[in-house]
Amino acid sequence: MAASAPSSSAAEPEPNSAYLRPPTSAYDSWCGVAHGCTRKLGMKICGFLQKNNSLDEKSRIGGSFKERQSSKNVLSCENRDPRFGHTETDFSNLFARDLLPAKNGEEPTMQFLLEVVDILTNYIRKTFDRSTKVLDFHHPHQLLEGIEGFNLELSDQPESLEQILVDCRDTLKYGVRTGHPRFFNQLSSGLDIIGLAGEWLTSTANTNMFTYEIAPVFVLMEQLTLKKMREIVGWPGGEGDGIFSPGGAISNMYSVMVARYKYYPEVKTKGMSAAPRLILFTSEHSHYSIKKAGAALGFGVENVILLKCDERGRVIPADLEAKIIDAKQKGYVPLFVNATAGSTVYGAFDPINEIADLCEKYNMWLHVDGAWGGGLLMSRKHRHKLSGIERANSVTWNPHKMMGVPLQCSAILVREKGLLQGCNQMCAGYLFQPDKQYDVTYDTGDKAIQCGRHVDIFKFWLMWKAKGTSGFEQHINKCLELSEYLYTKIKNREGYEMVFQGEPQHTNVCFWYLPPSLRGMPDCPERRERLHKVAPKIKAMMMESGTTMVGYQPQGDKVNFFRMVVSNPAATKSDIDFLIEEIERLGQDL
Amino acid sequence: MAASAPSSSAAEPEPNSAYLRPPTSAYDSWCGVAHGCTRKLGMKICGFLQKNNSLDEKSRIGGSFKERQSSKNVLSCENRDPRFGHTETDFSNLFARDLLPAKNGEEPTMQFLLEVVDILTNYIRKTFDRSTKVLDFHHPHQLLEGIEGFNLELSDQPESLEQILVDCRDTLKYGVRTGHPRFFNQLSSGLDIIGLAGEWLTSTANTNMFTYEIAPVFVLMEQLTLKKMREIVGWPGGEGDGIFSPGGAISNMYSVMVARYKYYPEVKTKGMSAAPRLILFTSEHSHYSIKKAGAALGFGVENVILLKCDERGRVIPADLEAKIIDAKQKGYVPLFVNATAGSTVYGAFDPINEIADLCEKYNMWLHVDGAWGGGLLMSRKHRHKLSGIERANSVTWNPHKMMGVPLQCSAILVREKGLLQGCNQMCAGYLFQPDKQYDVTYDTGDKAIQCGRHVDIFKFWLMWKAKGTSGFEQHINKCLELSEYLYTKIKNREGYEMVFQGEPQHTNVCFWYLPPSLRGMPDCPERRERLHKVAPKIKAMMMESGTTMVGYQPQGDKVNFFRMVVSNPAATKSDIDFLIEEIERLGQDL
């Protein structure tokens, strides 16, 4: 919606309506055909398709809500033949109370939903169009003040469906197109159409994962998909357990809970005072959720020991062993090691086998946080980077990251059956009645720390059906190739410095861009201070211009650098080239 | 999809196509019009609408995938005029890889999404049609074996989009219609059209709540909505803090975490060993998530003390005080009291003011679990039941329950600012850079125990816009009236016994149905044993026949009883009547 440039696929303009933009798709063309041969038929559907394109156009060129409303009057598509009795729906006189389950609510409901779908499909089309901006940035105070009549405040009285549709358009207009081919800002990016369809269906089904009773199909899909994931991890026969959770941080939290339950089941009843001082280990490059779990679950952050990494961000096993010994000497009990498979910033893979050896030696739980890197298991070419994962006691794997599944979709896999249930069950009688007519082992709710649980499985299952394992493999390989392309392009390019040497293990490419003014300056506090400001400045300008988005951060003693990641299936080499050009364009005078 | 009876709103059948069901909506009628006057136009859209109705029809009357495929050949809508070049899309030769971002992927993408929407809108229409079954029950092994070709297994190779569409239909067919007017099985029921539209938009935007950077509009909507909720709770000026979490159990977990952080902030760093033995209090009727939180966070379940309730399920304050004193005498530290506003089974409201007095007296954190009852705050008539909630330190309130918002939508509200952030923040440099160009206090991620966080706010915000506060109030009042109707209907009816006396506080109506064979039998072990089996048997028959769904459970020493709840806006008195008739029909010979 935020595009300032015209659509890249423009065809012949529709002659009768000055306010219509040139048709950009088959749908617009059909409407053109409709006008060309008769006005008696298909007007309804044609009308809603055209009207929204036009409204959207008005919205893009500005104009208040009132102006946008009045723009409807000039739409040629609204000249209807009254004989058919299906005049343009006037949403300004319809309200939520007129929709289903209201009496006679079926037609307005269908009308309204189709209008919404039209808004969404237009958004989708433009998201994949590189001439559309990634975002139309505004500061919080600007949005709070209400831009062009977009009023975020809630009121006592209902608004018309017309206004609701405008609100939907505005919400998308001022948002960020995370599916845009040039959105590289997070580990989760892209907009998978099958996944999206799956999510639309999920919301329509609007049910809850806690019992087979009300989610029979989804519960079975979850069970089969988790088994498949465990097979891919390499556990014999795909045996074990698991559950989808609301994100990698919660999945990691599960791993710590289950480890504690395995070694000190009495903590469930008696609390942490029943156990000795327990120590969790994770690398200094690992995700902060291990520390969050340590804090939340009552271990305390100072009992989450950070391990040193090599220059590539991979944990140094010798440091782990030294710290295990140190902890034991202090009388503490080393409980748990998190090995990261694909660190957030460097994309590093910890050496799982060496860590597994230490876990066996010292009788500790091995968790692999593959939230980001787990997807590489789908690629025969890249899965060796997770070698040893089959020795893990638990694995976090977020299909919503590298596999392109819409948010949220994260799995915690546990090798030993029964632990999740044992750890979390409270046997709520109102949900988990033992005297149901079906096999109640299919009720999953007592494995979870949640009660109600959103259906996160369907979109993923549907994508797997639609792509096959081979489709995921191709996607993973392509993303890795693109990051290799970026790495090769900039590693010796003037004005670039790599944050770590050698080809990245994942799609993370970490680099500094040095504006001409900093090139050749020797390393000194002033250079570091100035370089630290470069990435934030370029990022701010990127966001203001809306052309692309990429993340940056400091790490340890390293000043702010860009972290490029590729997980978006829409990205191509041309988008990588664009990013580099854009960084240079925005950064040249800094 | 599982309906065996014809649609209740049938009109004139479409004469040309033997396989088409009678039109049930304006869309079918337009297609009829299309056939009546010209076959040249609107065929595309008409075609997809009709085809799916027909497929759906075939699916309802059985038939394999192949049969369903071949049924397409008889559709009159497919006789297209080749001049328009828009032949029926053959999805059997299209795959996920042909959709966007594929080159020329736009048209198949739009086609595919419209097909999906057609499946969903058909589902929605039927869900509100009382002649449709609530569910088409099958046992796990039946679904796993693959009914009528519905194969849940994942494979290496991709399936065609045709098969994906069939999978979508089958998924809905074998699911449970939680929006059906006769679905009373859970606290969350109904299918709000505005909320649904909001969720479709949310999935299309596919972003993450952790930073303003990538969710500017949603972050502000969350902020404004939480403020509004705090105002309604009664905290001066709506001040305070809060966050949407993945459900009431997690919201309750937050309350315990924040309470601990307020009184013993050193636990974050040093773990539970830094604190004395801390005690949490909650009623024996409260939700099991307080115990889950106690177990997970390291308190231990035996430090979650259950409080006695009166015969209506409301906590007895004197029991709380006695147990506080007892804990203190043992040298433990009473930390936290959970007062339930709307218990899961009885719908009971604990006396918040009396509990608040004790919390003040003993310097304890007061949490109100209004996951289920919080919605009553929207009703001037019923909000007195939560009197005293403004004295709480934290409140759980699930709009996805009584307010009819689609799953998941749960808020944890905290009266004191800064605690959520202090409790959970880990300052991840890669997300929460302090040197961004905007006011980074709008980045919410460090308040959460999650990292990525699903956008749960938009559907709720949009519903609030569309209904207004007044619309929620009307919905709440109507649900309470319906449950009053049920209560009045059965309290003196032959064959019914109320589980507790007096009018329910919430919509929960708890009752035993006594089959004629048990009536008049004196209370004895045999009667109890037989009565215990009645509700499960009736429930199983209900599910087999698919006509309605209602929950049952035992509670304390009470044998299985039905718990009826009303939160579904589609329910009417006739549905209440139906439920009673159905229980009597199914149960008369037990």
Automatic annotation (TrEMBL), chains A, B:
InterPro entries documented for this protein: PyrdxlP-dep_de-COase, PyrdxlP-dep_Trfase, PyrdxlP-dep_Trfase_major, Pyridoxal-P_BS
GO molecular function list: glutamate decarboxylase activity; pyridoxal phosphate binding
Enzyme class: lyase
Keyword Lyase: yes
Family annotation (Pfam families): Pyridoxal_deC (PF00282)
Modified sites of kind N6-(pyridoxal phosphate)lysine: K401
Keywords, ordered alphabetically: Decarboxylase, Lyase, Neurotransmitter biosynthesis, Phosphoprotein, Pyridoxal phosphate
Keyword Magnesium: no
One annotated Gene Ontology cellular component of this protein: cytoplasm
Assembly information from the UniProt record: Homodimer.
Descriptive protein name: Glutamate decarboxylase 1
